[in-house]
């Protein structure tokens, strides 16, 4: 404390001030001391901000670009960014890849991605890169992409191949012509019956004008029978599924329902034609509507 006072006295004398303890003590603190005190407070305020930078830099040695690992020959899927030390160029983490970490080992996500960490494990500093825009987009190349990040990756690859970059044309999938996902080739017959107690359904194929019946499914490998309860109480629903449909399956099929109180049946028919022009369209008249 005495040394600090002596330094103040010396500075005051050089400035032409009275250096006696009696005359100096009642006066205000000199301007140069106030300036030093303000500078000290400013540095103390900056210290919390400087600590992360200093700690990151503690893992970074002298920068020698010649020692940097080369980028992949095929390029980076999400572009390149400076490493945490600011010395070398590295590939940014792509969608679905790990990100985060500390100091020189930290890995950052590419443009349009964000590092999402687990909410359950807060101690884990690592996360996964996820796209900020999770909706589908249509590219100027006419293709649909699951996200803007996927489009950006495709655009970077196109540029590396010497092609035009791909931009977002609109949100959502691109407009396309209709595509047949499941072509026709199977037929099913359905039947519902209700009774108390709930009836049992069986299917038969009519042979020779209802004179003979073939219990289904028999040994047919392209025909399946399915039955389930409902949709209402004491009701049962059954189906005959035929796939693939051949000429042999043409004919009439009987749905038969029975319980302890009786039985009932109904018949449905399958008629095969060679072309759509062979389909007979019945004209509905006013009498039919009534």
From TrEMBL:
<dbReference type="GO" id="GO:0005615">
    <property type="term" value="C:extracellular space"/>
</dbReference>
<feature type="domain" description="Ig-like">
    <location>
        <begin position="165"/>
        <end position="271"/>
    </location>
</feature>
<dbReference type="GO" id="GO:0001558">
    <property type="term" value="P:regulation of cell growth"/>
</dbReference>
<keyword id="KW-0393">Immunoglobulin domain</keyword>
<dbReference type="Pfam" id="PF07648">
    <property type="entry name" value="Kazal_2"/>
</dbReference>
<dbReference type="InterPro" id="IPR017891">
    <property type="entry name" value="Insulin_GF-bd_Cys-rich_CS"/>
</dbReference>
<dbReference type="InterPro" id="IPR007110">
    <property type="entry name" value="Ig-like_dom"/>
</dbReference>
<dbReference type="InterPro" id="IPR036058">
    <property type="entry name" value="Kazal_dom_sf"/>
</dbReference>
<keyword id="KW-0732">Signal</keyword>
<dbReference type="InterPro" id="IPR000867">
    <property type="entry name" value="IGFBP-like"/>
</dbReference>
<dbReference type="InterPro" id="IPR013783">
    <property type="entry name" value="Ig-like_fold"/>
</dbReference>
<dbReference type="InterPro" id="IPR011390">
    <property type="entry name" value="IGFBP_rP_mac25"/>
</dbReference>
<dbReference type="Pfam" id="PF13927">
    <property type="entry name" value="Ig_3"/>
</dbReference>
<dbReference type="InterPro" id="IPR009030">
    <property type="entry name" value="Growth_fac_rcpt_cys_sf"/>
</dbReference>
<dbReference type="GO" id="GO:0009966">
    <property type="term" value="P:regulation of signal transduction"/>
</dbReference>
<dbReference type="InterPro" id="IPR036179">
    <property type="entry name" value="Ig-like_dom_sf"/>
</dbReference>
<feature type="domain" description="IGFBP N-terminal">
    <location>
        <begin position="56"/>
        <end position="132"/>
    </location>
</feature>
<dbReference type="Pfam" id="PF00219">
    <property type="entry name" value="IGFBP"/>
</dbReference>
<keyword id="KW-0964">Secreted</keyword>
<keyword id="KW-1015">Disulfide bond</keyword>
<protein>
    <recommendedName>
        <fullName>Insulin-like growth factor binding protein 7</fullName>
    </recommendedName>
</protein>
<dbReference type="GO" id="GO:0005520">
    <property type="term" value="F:insulin-like growth factor binding"/>
</dbReference>
<dbReference type="InterPro" id="IPR002350">
    <property type="entry name" value="Kazal_dom"/>
</dbReference>
